[in-house]
């Protein structure tokens, strides 16, 4: 009997040891608690946006020619109406001088002819009075009258010559203006193509010819970003936006939606997008911008204050989470109802209570409903 008892005890010890060393080990998981806080629904651009100027013009002369005057350098601030560049136009200046001399000559000739016309009209009036008194014949009176009419017509023709000469002056002025580039607004010269004495050509439509001068109004800047066409109906003018710049990592600039393009941009092999323009709320932030900076825009569609939320990355397909049960240290699959969300947080309307802990390390092996788990130590605890 003693031998049998010893055998049974040995088998029990061996079985217990086998179970102990082969028992299932708990999976180490990271947990996060459902807590109250702010949740926002937002959309972001699909491709990098950029900083743009409210006014930007790429100026080129209407006609080609040699650069005779270059009054600015890259980076110069200019005023509206300032002459930036002028082509050689001595021939047109000569034509203008000639036209102006023709105006002066025409005026003198007209003055002479019109004086003769006035004298002829006075003579015709005297002959008319003499005819009425019977001192001259009808033929003499008619001759004087027709002479006055002829002289008056010559006077009018001379005056028309003055108008024609003045028109020639205007034509030469227009021709000279074709060789001059004038700043259409206050701004900064971003680029200049060409040097003094070089030949420059206009930029005809459809031909990628660099402009002679690129002028930017740096006093008014905005951010333009492409948004997916699916998100476009949710976006409205005046909505809050947040702008991030690669040039200033970690800095977020508050802004507002200024404009939504009324058309969809279709780029080959890319999603169809709608261009959205955003202006910054703080004028001081706008001083940080340079035209051409790449930028990302996040537009806030809706916001909830002090609502129950969990990390969006902790939600499985079908709005499911893995809830940690502290009483048996196992995971329970729980279906939840959600409200608004973004890439960081999701609002929970049903299925969880404040303080419930769910698994955030869903990518780890063995993490599933019913698994025995051990919470990951936080800060060494």
Characterise this structure:
- By secondary structure, the chain is of the alpha+beta class.
- It has four domains: 24-39 and 306-375, conserved putative lor/sdh protein from methanococcus maripaludis s2 fold (Beta Barrel); 44-54 and 217-304, Beta Barrel (Elongation Factor Tu (Ef-tu), domain 3), CATH 2.40.30.170; 56-87 and 180-215, Beta Barrel (OB fold (Dihydrolipoamide Acetyltransferase, E2P)), CATH 2.40.50; 90-177.
- Helices cover 29% and strands 35% of the residues.
- The protein is built from four helices and 23 strands.
- It has helices at residues 2-22, 90-133, 138-177, 283-286, and strands at residues 27-29, 31-33, 35-44, 49-53, 56-59, 65-70, 77-78, 83-87, 180-182, 187-192, 199-200, 213-216, 221-228, 240-245, 248-260, 273-280, 294-311, 320-325, 330-335, 337-341, 345-350, 357-359, 373-375.
- The strands form six sheets. The protein has a six-stranded antiparallel β-barrel. Strands 5-12-10-7 form a four-stranded antiparallel sheet, with no helix packed on it.
- A hairpin with a 3-residue loop joins strand 20 and strand 21.
- Helix 2 (90-133) packs antiparallel against helix 3 (138-177).
- It is rod-shaped.
- The model has no long low-confidence stretch (mean pLDDT 87).
Features:
381 residues, alpha+beta, conserved putative lor/sdh protein from methanococcus maripaludis s2 fold, Elongation Factor Tu (Ef-tu), domain 3, OB fold (Dihydrolipoamide Acetyltransferase, E2P), six-stranded antiparallel beta barrel, four-stranded antiparallel sheet, 29% helix
């Amino acid at each position: 009997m003693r031998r049998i008892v010893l055998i049974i005890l040995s088998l029990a010890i061996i079985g217990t040891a086998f179970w102990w060393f082969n028992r299932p080990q708990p999976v180490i998981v990271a947990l996060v608690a459902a807590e109250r806080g702010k949740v926002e629904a937002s959309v972001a651009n699909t491709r990098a946006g950029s900083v743009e100027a409210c006014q930007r013009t790429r100026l080129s002369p209407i006609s080609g020619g040699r650069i005779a005057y270059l009054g600015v350098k890259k980076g110069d601030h200019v005023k509206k109406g300032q002459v930036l560049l002028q082509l050689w136009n001595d021939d047109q200046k000569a034509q203008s001088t000639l036209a102006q001399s023709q105006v002066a000559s025409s005026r003198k000739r007209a003055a002479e002819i019109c004086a003769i016309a006035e004298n002829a009209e006075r003579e015709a009036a005297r002959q008319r009075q003499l005819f009425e008194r019977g001192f001259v014949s009808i033929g003499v009176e008619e001759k004087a009258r027709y002479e006055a009419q002829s002289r008056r017509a010559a006077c009018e023709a001379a005056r028309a010559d003055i108008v024609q000469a003045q028109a020639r002056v205007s034509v030469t002025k227009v021709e000279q203006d074709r060789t001059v580039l004038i700043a259409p607004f206050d701004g900064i010269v971003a680029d200049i193509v060409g040097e003094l004495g070089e030949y420059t050509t206009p930029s005809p439509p459809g031909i990628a010819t660099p402009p002679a001068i690129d002028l930017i109004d740096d006093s008014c800047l905005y951010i333009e970003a492409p948004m997916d066409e699916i998100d476009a109906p949710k976006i409205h003018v005046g909505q809050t936006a947040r702008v991030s710049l690669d040039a200033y990592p970690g800095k977020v600039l508050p802004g507002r939606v200024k404009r939504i393009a009324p058309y969809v941009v279709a780029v080959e092999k890319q999603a169809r997008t709608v261009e959205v323009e955003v202006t910054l709320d703080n004028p001081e932030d706008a001083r940080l911008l340079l035209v051409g900076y790449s930028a990302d825009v996040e537009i806030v569609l809706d916001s909830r204050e002090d609502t129950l939320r969990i990390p969006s990355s902790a939600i499985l397909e079908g709005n499911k989470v893995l809830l940690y049960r502290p009483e048996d240290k196992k995971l329970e699959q729980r279906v939840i109802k959600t409200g608004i969300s973004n890439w960081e947080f999701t609002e929970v309307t049903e299925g969880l209570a404040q303080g419930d802990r769910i698994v955030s390390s869903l990518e780890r092996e063995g993490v599933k409903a019913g698994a025995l788990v051990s919470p990951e130590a936080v800060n060494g605890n």
